[in-house]
């Protein structure tokens, strides 16, 4: 093999080994870029990297064929392979660049171009003798692909780090390929072209590495940028246009990235224009700091034209090698909502404490009224009208006590006292008590109670309270409209629910408040006419019964409230008489038991003393815990009835003191309380195991409880 060839027409001898060495160097540089592209393709899944892998593989095949042609210059298969590799490299380079520029082409076009190049390469190897004219177009195509790729990168230099190096590298690489057909006749020039290929390929590799490393850092920043909970806008300092916005910013404004980026930020934040108009000399960071101040709410315009109040700050930053403003915004509407819920919870907590105190004060007189009405009902010789009036007093007093209990349940939720209930009977009972109110308001009542209505488990007092609230609201609304005034009460079965409907032909519920009528303290009644708790308590009661309540307007006018209670199959025990049970008379000759009544309310003491005395007990009284201890020290008692809330020593302290002195007597204390839903009170009763009576109580409850406690142990203490 000749190791020297003549360069051009002169006698300059150029070693072939040098050319082979440069070819190997160029081939190694191509292998480097192939490995890099394979890595980038695996990490980024960008389609142009896949196409470029084919392109540079084909170019590596061209260089390998060039090494073979150093040994066999006229071998047709190598010539065909060389031309085919150049053509494939050019086509796949172009198609990859189309994807880089955002203009992808169809796969059918790529297949057609590949087939044409194979034909072209065969013609170049076996038919055409003048290789220059067949080689020149293919190299020109590859050069154009390289230049197009370089231009595509240069156009992206503002967004891609390393794009400038890549752009220049591809431009030079494409430009030098144009000279290849002219250099084929000169060994030194061909070797120089191969050397330039190696150098420019390494330059492209460096550019890709720079882009990849910076892109990784930028992707990490982008992840943090987009995952930030605050809305972030990057704004230029000249026209105050949005250059970048994160995901939270798009979510806050309910806009797309195309609708935000490039838009003047003043259109999103009109306060900037207001402040700038008021102070014309203010600009840049001073302007933004004047608007975005700590604890200052700024309205931001959303895509639908509505505004959302935000708090934020502005910071001077460097964004892609130039100064910019970064505005961080936080939607405060949720925080305000939580704050409002906290204030409401605090208000309800304060209300609960107030109700607990008021309940105790109300339950004392209610217990007296209920007790004495029952005593009156036991009198003989009363006419029917008097008995009916006593019955009404008793019923309304009992209803008042349920209202107090429901208020306590609202402030301190507890499980309803459920039992088998016939809803029709309950509705009829409520309507009977409301008959006078309906007649006074001139309201016509229409009842449509379904026959054979299923039973359910419910707290009858609480369900009565729901109906009373709904009927009371209807009476109030209908009182403001002319005749006819119609109130409709219906019961029916709807699937697995018993449905109660209270409807009126009034003005209906205004659309702007229908979603708020169950909110605590919300009322449309004049000041002093309503507390805003009626519907709230009703909603709470229904939910505790695993039911649902719905408010809506009727098509023909008027409001309709629908209450659904789940059907529970159970047996309802009939009650023939609503009068309190008769007082139990003591058995003749029965030994008298001694009872100590302890309460700071004189009327309660007198009532209990009267009832227990009629039952044959010997009753002593005390108005506070200390006085009761003195009486216990003076003599023994079989039973103690003690109030829980008393001045000085309360029921809890009284129990602990008695327990230390006489443990057996301590367990014969029956507590009387007006606040049975208090968690502390319930926990105390559970710990001691003592019986207790809830104010207001019935006489029968007092008698039964006293008998049960005394029957546990016959020996006096």
Mean pLDDT: 77
Please describe the biggest sheet, giving its number of strands, its sense, and whether it closes into a barrel: 5 strands, antiparallel
**From the alpha-carbon coordinates, what is the Rg to the nearest angstrom?**
47 Å
CATH evolutionary superfamily of the largest domain: Rhodopsin 7-helix transmembrane proteins
Strand order of the largest sheet: 4-3-7-6-5
Give the name of the CATH architecture of the largest domain.
Up-down Bundle
Q: How large a portion of the residues is in β-strands, by DSSP E?
A: 5-15%
Please report the number of helical segments.
24
Could you please say which CATH topology of the largest domain applies here? Rhopdopsin 7-helix transmembrane proteins
- Overall tally of structural domains: 4
Distance N to C terminus: 132 Å
Which residues sit in consecutive blocks of at least 5 with pLDDT less than 50?
1-12, 575-590
Helix content: 55-70%
Gross morphology is elongated
**Class by SSE composition:** alpha/beta
Q: Would you report the number of β strands?
A: 19
CATH class wording of the largest domain? Mainly Alpha
Describe, in plain words, how this protein is organized in 3D.
The protein is of the alpha/beta class and 717 residues long. The chain has four domains: 4-220, Rhopdopsin 7-helix transmembrane proteins (Up-down Bundle), CATH 1.20.1070.10; 229-331, Beta-Lactamase; 423-571, Histidine kinase-like ATPase, C-terminal domain (Heat Shock Protein 90), CATH 3.30.565; 594-711, Response regulator (Rossmann fold), CATH 3.40.50. A five-stranded antiparallel sheet has the order 4-3-7-6-5. Helix 17 packs antiparallel against helix 18. The chain starts with a strand and ends in a 6-residue tail after the last helix. The model is unreliable at 1-12 and 575-590 (pLDDT under 50).
